[in-house]
Amino acid sequence: MIPLSLAEIAEVVGGRLHGTDGSPVVTGSVEFDTREVTGGGLFVALPGERVDGHDFAAQAVGAGAVGVLAAREVDGPAVVVPPVERRGGNAYVLSGDTEGHGAAVLAALAKLARHVTDRLAAEHGLVVVGVTGSSGKTSTKDLIAQVLSPMGPTVAPPGSFNNELGHPWTALRADADTRYLVLELSARGPGHIAHLCQVAPPSIGAVLNVGSAHLGEFGSRQGIAQAKGELVEALPESGVAVLNADDPLVAGMAPRTRAKVVLVGEHPRADVRAEDVVLDEQARAGFRLVTPKGEAQVRLGVHGPHQVGNALTAAAIALELGATPQEVADRLGQAQRVSAHRMAVTERADGVTVINDAYNANPESVRAALKSLAAMSRATTPARRSWAVLGAMAELGGDSVRAHDEIGRLAVRLDINKLVVVGPDARAMHQGAHLEGSWGEESVLVPDVAAAIELLRAEVRPGDVVLVKASNSYGLWRVAEALLEAGSK
Asked: How far apart (Å, rounded) are the C-alpha atoms in residues 444 and 448?
């Protein structure tokens, strides 16, 4: 963050000073966890289900914070912010926020982030890049950050820190030296992305795809497309919209923006496209990168054919910011997986390959993961035995049974050798596999993670390839970790 006094922060957020004359200057980071507070920092007091950050103000000050951003008076120097009325789409509800304190603090945090990013853009040329889509946001954000980093100091959120808290928190990591701020934008309803774009206005925005994630909240894919397109609507005329030419709903967003449109994909009309795509034995893609600035050969270090589209998005952004095709190709080849539990491919000493992709799951990402599993298992002769350990996909609303049924059928059509369906919420996957033609013990339904671990420990053989995937709340990453632990003994 740029140095700001508590008095300046109070003016920016419309708050009042408490326990201070406002002269102390925030020179450190902005944190909502007292364990992360360092000297010169600002502590953000947020309520939670079990504890209220306001009660830890003195502890934060003792750890070095010069002040607290709070919704009520606390034991320490603070900027106390006024209450806010939450309306429409720009409302992520904090669990435990019964008095609206969290809403007030988040609104103030958003104002502070906007002030800082506006100043950095005007005074230091900060470029804000926004990425959204139904799937692949985090992997693409990580690729973009790695491709841009050689061009200048780059800030990006850890993992999927992409909501009304993570967005301003990440923006406030930027300082006068930061050249690129890469942000991931999520939405649980209409207006959410538009709100995030007000927190840190992007000059470059990328929309990856429109799928079925959060279908329960939006009602239809068209509703999801309308919400995702809020990003391109927020771009200035001098900005750049990077759109997926392979997804008609995304390509159809072009008329919604004043910005320059760059299409990416394998479609012939894509401005930045991949041709002659091939996969190696670990489903890492190689392709010819074709751009208006020239061509280059790319060999990705990340796993899965779906990473081609993610890489093209990162390439298009870097090219717009001045990189050459060869520089982009070299950086994409060096880029690695950054965020945990996302296509993390590990080989045990006995040759068992474990693919931990258990951070999140929606129909599109599960299909992509299954195709990666099939490609990896067939990359050798003879083919390796494949296991798909799948849990439920959350937030699909009334489409849930059909979506799970289709995944079970796809596993059979891809000739996955063993399908392990974990938990009653995913039962329709198991039923779909049987209806598609699964026989015997090809597909099995187990009640929970412990049962899945027991089954796999007993039946996985050296050389097998095991994919583990589900929505994060189901904790299937524990299956992957148990397999890796077993392999180290």
From this structure: 12
Tell me, what's the pLDDT at 97?
A: 64
Cα–Cα distance for residue pair 92/110, rounded to 1 Å = 13
Paired residues of 344 in beta bridges: 356
**From residue 486, how far is each of 399, 434, 468, 475, 489 by CA, in Å?**
37, 30, 15, 18, 6
* Three-state DSSP class for residue 222: helix
Residue found by looking up tokens 């006068």 in the block: 176
**Distance from C-alpha of 47 to C-alpha of 190, rounded to nearest angstrom:** 25
Q: How many residues in the chain?
A: 489
Handedness of CA 242, 245, 247, 249 (dihedral sign): positive
- Which residue is listed with tokens 């099995």? 444
d(CA 357, CA 355): 6
CA distances from 211 to 135, 233, 256, 273, 362 (A): 7, 19, 19, 21, 8
The model's pLDDT over 38-72, given as tens digits with 9 standing for 90+, comes to 999 999 999 887 889 999 999 999 999 999 999 99
